[in-house]
Amino acid sequence: MNHAEFLTACRDLLGRDHVLTERADTGTYLTDQRKRYVGNALAVLRPADAVQTAALVRLCIAHGVPMVPQGGNTGLAGGATPDTSGHQVVISLRRLDRIRQVDADNLTLTAEAGCLLANVQAAAAAAERLFPLSLAAEGSCTIGGNLATNAGGTAVLRYGNARELCLGLEVVTPQGELWDGLRGLRKDNTGYDLRDLFIGAEGTLGLITAATLKLFAQPAARMTALAALDSPAEALALLNLAQRMAGPLLTGFELMSDFCMQLVAQVFTSLRYPFSQPYAQSVLLELSDNESEAHARDLLERVLNAAIERGIVRDAIVASSLAQSNALWHLRESIPLAQSATGLNIKHDIAVPVSQVPAFIAATDPIVQRIAPGARMVTFGHLGDGNLHYNVMAPDGVDPAAFLKQYQTPVTAAVHDSVHAHRGTISAEHGLGQFKRDASAHYKSPVEIALMRALKSAFDPLGLMNPGKVLPD
User: Fold this and answer.
1) Which pLDDT band holds residue 1 (cuts at 50, 70, 90)?
2) For 3, 127, 436, 473, which has the most beta carbons within 10 A of its beta carbon?
């Protein structure tokens, strides 16, 4: 491969300003969000639109250059980071940032892959519609990355994850062809569902350049409450009760252990623990109501009163204003920030069947303690869809980096074994990237791995699309 010839062709195609080769310019593209991986790239290439992206892919094919697609670079599994060889290029899709269409009557919005999630939400709101995907990184993550990792977030319980929110895609194939699948249809039974193959594939089967997304009616009111409970089993009982009484109005249901709440209060002293005494678990639940705020409040209060009468909930607070609702959500959203502020820790993004969440926690906590005595469990997440961030911190007074070095491998193996025993998955919403690709292969059957390899080979026979990700070498 003639690097100079390739880079010259890239500059002719994209313009000199959009072919970055100096480390001062490329550095932020080469390190993942958690700074777990630092790669090296021949160049960072920034196409302006889908047609230019397709031409760029053809150019990479002609020169045998492996491609690593990247959106907002907010991923947590190293899926958008190049390797250290210096032979790969990063294709940044951030310049593809147009909202192409909002069809309010069809409840759809078509956005390019580089659109920030927050901007898609705002475009929907401007049309008096709702795009419900909501993540902590929504001000910096992009729609292309959300779809490539099949992102989840806090509203999966009602609206589904990114896959369920997408009706159609525009994709540059590994052959450099542009597939226009931007159909705003709820029903289309005309063959294989190509859309679903690209969603969650982390750029290993093609480059998503645009998507047609589902919109919803804006709710008339959102009502939030925080409930105190004694155990995850009670939290599951509350979930069942809330689903029975509120049905599809139940939008969010977040579980947080007492230590999570203590950690947030320790790091962010302005965030006050809202109850008069500590409780083993807290649940943040939210209803979205299309009738009125009064109706939502009455329903939420009835759910909580019923739970208290049955001995499920020990105490509860219903937000009396938008500011108080935001404050309750801020407690939940500050948990990852509090973890980061206290140093490195062992993180797991896992999911088990909702019914198995209490059993998983009860079985796995003692296993972790036997391996790493005194470890502190930071357990929180989206109980409504079975997704837990099951994280392990060093004991008080122990150096976090030393703890991570000594215990990450055995603790992670034990947690993953327990997840597998409970019929779960080791990656719920963060993807596999390069961080979990080998571990995932360990828990998948040979049949499943063979099918995945067959897909990869059929779509990308040259192996140039985000190599080293999702599937082991």
Assistant:
1) low
2) 436
Q: Two tokens at 242? A: 């809330």
Say if CB 253 and CB 388 are below 8 A apart: no
Place of tokens 């940032």: 97
Which residues lie closer than 8 Å to 87 by C-beta, 6 or more apart? 1, 42, 65, 66
Antiparallel, parallel or unpaired: β 250-257 and 376-382: antiparallel
pLDDT, tens digit, 9 for 90 and up, residues 64-115 = 999 999 999 999 899 999 999 999 999 999 999 999 999 999 999 999 999 9
Maximum distance among all Cα pairs of the chain, rounded to whole angstroms? 74
- Asked whether the beta carbons of 391 and 378 are under 8 A apart, the reply is yes
DSSP state of 19: E
Spatial distance between the Cα atoms of 408 and 368, rounded to a whole number of angstroms: 11
Report which of 82, 95, 93, 89 is spatially closest to residue 7, judged by C-alpha positions: 89
Domain ranges within the chain, ordered by starting residue: 3-92, 99-217, 221-422
Write the class of the CATH domain 3-92: alpha beta
The DSSP secondary structure of 217-266, one letter per residue, reads EPPSEEEEEEEEESSHHHHHHHHHHHHHHHGGGEEEEEEEEHHHHHHHHH
CB-CB contact of 307 with 299 (8 Å): no
Neighbours of 317 (CB within 10 A): 16
Please give the CATH number for the structural domain made up of 99-217: 3.30.465.10
Token digits of residue 433: 């990237």
Cα–Cα distance measured from residue 189 to residue 192, given in angstroms and rounded to the nearest whole number? 8
Give the number of other CB atoms < 10 A from CB of residue 362. Answer: 12
Token look-up 């791995």 returns: 449
Tokens found for residue 217: 């009616």
Strand partners of residue 226: 284, 317
Model confidence pLDDT, tens digit, residues 171-215: 999 999 999 999 999 999 999 999 999 999 999 999 999 999 999
Residues 6 or more apart whose CB falls under 8 angstroms from that of 283 comprise 226, 227, 229, 235, 238, 239, 253, 254, 255, 256, 383
CA angle 389, 395, 331 (to 5 degrees): 40
Q: Is 221-422 a CATH 3.30.70.2190 domain?
A: yes
Q: State the DSSP string of 79-101.
A: TT---SSS--EEEE-TT---EEE
Instruction: Say whether pTM exceeds 0.90.
Output: yes
